[in-house]
Amino acid sequence: MRTGLDWQRVQALVAAERASYITRNPESARLAGQAAQHLLFGVPMHWMNDWSTPFPLTVRDASGARFRDADDHEYIDFCLGDTGAMFGHAPLAVATAIARQSARGYTAMLPSEDAGPVAAELARRFGLPYWQFALSASDANRFVLRWLRAATGRSKVLVFNGCYHGTVDDVFVDLVGGVPMQRDSLLGQVHTLTDHTVVVEFNDLPALEAALKQGDIACVLAEPVMTNIGMVLPQPGYWEAAQQLIKRHGALLVIDETHTISSGMGGYARAHGMTPDALVVGKPIGGGIPCAVYGFTEEVAHRVEHAKRSAPPGHSGIGTTLSANMFAMAAMRANLKQVMTEAAYQHMFALASQLADGLRASIARHQLPWCVTQVGARTEFQFSAAAPRNGSEAGAIMDSELEQAIHLYLLNRGLLITPFHNMLLVCPATTDADVSALVIAFDAVLRELV
């Protein structure tokens, strides 16, 4: 038995579902073979091969909570670009804004008329007065680390074991048997990351305090809820105490809300009374257009401005030519004002709760030792009876073979969930019927497996 299941039944299900997928998708198979002639690994990005499918599914078009593949099958999308399309595919307001902007220019290395209003709206939502822009959360996190190291005169950053902050080099450090180590999977890394990155377990206040006491931590970079290793919630009182420790020891707190923006209009930090020194939001902020934002408190903004003005002239290592381009700014303005609304969030919260309740009921019906966690519009089922408390616990209960079996079964029935773990998102276009369809299919795959 493995995670409460008969493993022979899991393997038999996978074999049957792979055969079904191959039969159902001849055009995606043809296109995958054609693409392999010129695409490295046969896909535009190598991780597109990491789905549960025998070959990549080719998307033809996407709108709202649905997309259609090259074989003309329609899917209800609970992955939503792993949060990139958290507010639905091609939201009408964003589509209209970028269509209008497409005839007015894309990039000019100068502010557009949308820049000021976007920054003002970000300040209103998140409570931080000063903002800058990037093309991805990876870049935004990278830039924030540079700014805060310069502003504090300290070289080290602290992250949590099992964290995810995009492709920022500094964060690819894990605890292995309690020892900080560079991730083995990191390709081409030549500098020793542990020289300037400190890693501790999430929810471990003594470990956090011991690291901060050294006096060389510029900032703590954290998601308020860990999400990419499966969701790990903060224990009651954790962030209140952690913020006090960070401040007491002269470090700064950076909150990455790229996934936890699912918590509400001002993200998890605003919803739970946190007061970060800096904040990053990536993927969903422009409705799927590549862009990201990062903001500072007034005090930290003055410190980073002073650091820049005190430095010799030349490239700061911060910013790219296309950052804050006119196209992205138009998309962000429309998305913030017309799509990421309170009404949209309330709709999403209600459906996510309905989904979480349905998953829990199914898990209980089949007497499986699994749990379900919800953060706003984001829901996750995990293969343990109790929710994990840190990255080590979350990593220990992940089971990629079982995940892929469930994911492939759902996909063959027109339901897409996020690869790599068991995350499900709802968007403003998701309906009660969509949620019911997923819960019914989830119950069916459990019935097949138990």
From TrEMBL:
Its cofactor is pyridoxal 5'-phosphate. Pfam families: Aminotran_3 (PF00202). Signal peptide: none annotated. Keywords: Aminotransferase, Pyridoxal phosphate, Transferase. One of its GO terms (molecular function) is transaminase activity. Belongs to the class-III pyridoxal-phosphate-dependent aminotransferase family. This is Aminotransferase class III-fold pyridoxal phosphate-dependent enzyme. It comes from Duganella guangzhouensis.
